[in-house]
Amino acid sequence: MSLPPFSTEFDIIFAGGGTTACVAAGRLAACDPSLKILILEAGEHTLDKVAYVQPWQYFIHLAPTSTSVTFNIGNPSPRLNGRAPVVPSGHCVGGGSSLRHTLVRPASDFDDWGVDGWESENLIPLMKKIETYEVQPDRPTHGYDGPIKVSSGGCKMGLCDEFIQVGTTYHKRPYSDDTNDLETCNTYSPWRKYIDSTTGRRSDAAHHYVYNQAHNPNLQLWAGKRVKRVIFEDKRAVGVEFTSDPVSSPDADQSSSTVRATKLVVVSAGTFGSPGVLERSGIGAEAVLKRCGIEKLVNLPGVGENYQDHNAAFVPYYAADGVVTMDALWRGEESAVRGKRVLATFPAYLNYPNVESLAQWNSNGKSLIAQNGGDAKIKWRPDDEELKTMGSVFQSRWKEFFQDRPDKAVAIFAIFAGYLGPLLGVLPPGNYMNASYFTLYPASAGSVHFKLEENGKDGMDFTTGYLDDPSDIAPLNFAYKKMREIYRRMPSYRGEIPAGHPNFPEGSAALCGKVSGPVDMNAPDIIYTAKDDEAIDKFHRDNVQTTWHSLGTCAMKPEADGGVVDARLNVYGVSNLKVADMSIVPLNVGTNTYSTALLIGEKAAMIIAQDLGIDCKP
């Protein structure tokens, strides 16, 4: 097959401009400014745009008309009562780092991967290299001069103190100030964030690895460009074919262009994008390629398999008058500021940040503008009694996976001071709080493959796998009950919002509603009947959702075990082609995946620098 003419050439091309690509490309450019590096990103630029740099605005990217994420629609699942789950993924420069920002760091996860060079002892120096930990000095697993800032955010939320106080008293778990030390688990703690404590801005990969190198003409970032496929000479990657993205650049010419890579192509289009790039390039399972009419280059059945995520539920409660929450800010109930609306897609109930909050944020980086409402959590492991409550189906999973790994949490329980969810436009103005719980190591897995739609356009065959394994729903059902008991004892508790809870049968002791205040700390727990348990199970199958932590679809493991890349991120069966993003993660991680994406970016930069003989210190 003859090669198309190339419009221009670079040393390295990154096919995708998310978190990992920004880190790797930026780090390589800083190590060797003469390297000609191109990042092609389908989404829009994020440079200094308030929707991306103001932490309080993270939720607006989930609006139905948002163009900063792609809404990946899964296949309907009987385990979800026939629902077709929707999983958003980043569609902007910086990817998820520009959209999410909470922090939990993994523990023994990397050792479990069993990949040479990716053990935790080799990665801790890179973890420290990434961050400036602004919370406490002299912590041995934290860094203090890296580009990504970690802080407590712009102000403290009193509801989160209540959550910790009840958790340590009623739930009988200890307190720890730092559960991101890679070992501490099963303690209540503050929830640190990727927010600069001085500026109050989101600490993202785009601004701190790429945009800050605008002085280097050899590091180029082309936004609004969607990579269709990698171009090969025999089986050597020599460039990519791309088009203008129809979402972020709807008025641009949609014809294809090509660009040459003289040294390396790095596919970094994410868990959803990278499998499709490989499959459209002829790399994947024969059956998938044949079904799409793509000429096979390499039969690699692992491409698109091994999809994993964390399963989450968000449950709303009433909070007392006078308590500080994010609600007034999120709903736009206070004074407007000059300028455009923050988000035109929510005109009925979202307006502007309070003038005073915005002025304070501009002055010293404080106020609710530099908050996301989530200030406290527990990385939870069940005790013997809780384990017994969850039944035999989970006990098998516990013994197999968790029992001998004391640093692995089953789930995270967290509080959000404010309500975000489908009832946002329906609930009257007031104070609310959200119970958030998500499981960290579900046993289920799914897949992501390219497909051609009936109209001939590119599509996706996406199966989440959520709750396919019977053990996965048990901790969710338990978490609902335990979180409800914690909330009932918080001083600011004023009851449940029934529409956001299970539909308990008439006459049940578990029925939800508004109340005048909390129960006593020593009050008995609610007794749930078998019918109540059925309602809770149905609630989760109807409502469980993504935590935006998708990974695994181009797994780094042996080819014979369904792997797609080796320990140096090389795609099996071809040369000059690597994958570097969350799709390479072979097993789930007990963390918000932004931290892992940053780490993969630093490790990828180090690997690429070694391959090219560049001095890029770890």
CATH topology of the largest domain: FAD/NAD(P)-binding domain
Alpha plus pi helix count: 15
Unreliable residue stretches: 334-351
CATH architectural arrangement of the largest domain: 3-Layer(bba) Sandwich
Radius of gyration: 24 Å
Q: Which class of the largest domain in CATH terms?
A: Alpha Beta
Give the % helix.
10-25%
Instruction: Report, as a whole number of angstroms, the end-to-end distance.
Output: 41 Å
Estimate what percentage of residues fall within beta strands.
Answer: 15-25%
- Mean pLDDT over the full residue set: 92
Principal-axes geometry comes out as: globular
CATH-level-4 superfamily name of the largest domain: FAD/NAD(P)-binding domain
Structural class: alpha/beta
Query: How many separate structural domains?
Result: 3
Count all strands and give the number: 22
- Major sheet attributes: 7 strands, mixed
